[in-house]
Amino acid sequence: MVSSDFVDLLKTLIRQPSVVGAEHSFFRVLQRELEERGAKVTWYEGVLVAQGSDPLSVMFSAHIDRHGLICTGPNEFQYSAFIAGNRTDLLNNSVSEELMSKITERFQAKPVFAYEPWSGAYRGNGTIKNTYICEYRNNLIFEIDGLESVVAGTPVAFKDKLVQDDDRIYGQLDNVLSAAALVHLFSLGFQGTVFFTAQEEAGKSWRYLLEWFRRFGGSTNRLFVVDTSPFPDVDSANQQKLVLRTKDANAAFNAEATQIVEAICREEGLSYIFKDRYVEDANQQLIAQGEKPRSIGSTELGRIIASSNGLVDGSTIQIPTTGYHTMEESASWDAVAAFIQVLSRLATHTAL
User: Fold this and answer.
1) Is the pLDDT assigned to residue 87 strictly greater than 80?
2) d(CA 115, CA 94)
């Protein structure tokens, strides 16, 4: 079962804007929630660090940015991740970009609101009336009714709230769901360290993490990165409670750390899969059919492992979801409960 305290926290956080590249106001909300739960909170560029009394005992990380828009001209808005990542073309060279080019129609008539990025102050609301790929810039462009007076540089968030039924929760869960779970850990007495990173969707968050570890980490640092993991439909997502990895497209993960997570899943009777093996098995079928294989994915952890020269390693724990990068992303209550259960076990694991 998921506690009512966690659900209330998630309801609060999901309503707060955190558009890629404009996450400061969300950091302010996180700081309040964390300090109320006894954590020591420190801000650095691109990362908020929350620590208990034994900060190097266990370390978790979750990105807190969510997809949204940035005003780039009079009644012209572009996808924030592409602007923050300095990507002006849809080159179809990542999973995210491939998906975005296919689902522009999903944003039709979605309610949005503009906000001041530092304070989160409200700057007006509107409704998306048109979404298209500009043939000249080869980029996603949005037109919005109601935000004609917004000036360039203003972030625009999708208006979101948590929707619940007996089996699943719905909303823009990536990755506020993981962030809420890590805040909730401090309510349960967690004394380690949690990193909340910005601009993961733009491929920048790992740099902020690595800078912190170079300044303040030990000689080697084991990090558990938590996130959501997309599946094509509810049936395939429900085949497992949790998603693990042995590697991504950038690097192999720490085998011992992965084995610790797997052992906890087995001890608790929680079903799981390894996403990299899942994709590789599916690719064998695609290749046999003469189709192009899919990427096994690029993660925050893989990027930092590949670039840290042994300073940082670790593993991942992910929640299986559907509706990737949409307002209707969903996760099962059972998966959320399993996720919190594993994090709680890791938080007190003596072998870390």
Assistant:
1) no
2) 29
Q: In this structure, how many other beta carbons lie within 10 angstroms of the beta carbon of residue 259?
A: 14
Sign of CA dihedral 188, 341, 300, 27: negative
Rounded distance between C-alpha atoms, residue 171 and residue 16, angstroms? 12
- What are the extents of the domains in the chain? 4-66+162-347
pLDDT exceeds cutoff 50 at 94:
no
Right CATH for 4-66+162-347 from 3.30.470.20, 3.40.50.11540, 3.10.450.50, 3.40.630.10: 3.40.630.10
> In this predicted structure, which of 87-101, 143-157, 167-181, 295-309 has the lowest mean pLDDT?
87-101
Give the residue from 223, 222, 249, 210 showing the smallest Cα distance to 94: 249
Tokens representing residue 131 in the block: 């979404």
> What pLDDT is stored for residue 64 in this prediction?
97
> At 76, phi and psi to the nearest 5?
-135, 130
**pTM reported for the whole predicted model:** 0.93
Distance CA 330, CA 97 (A): 20
DSSP bridge partners of 306: none
Which residue, among 109, 143, 153, 141, has the nearest Cα to 19 in the 3D structure? 153
pLDDT, tens digit, for every residue of 103-134? 566 677 899 999 999 999 999 999 999 888 77
- Report the chain's C-alpha Rg in angstroms: 19
Integer Cα distance of 33 and 119 in angstroms: 16
Closest by Cα among 207, 309, 241 to 2: 241
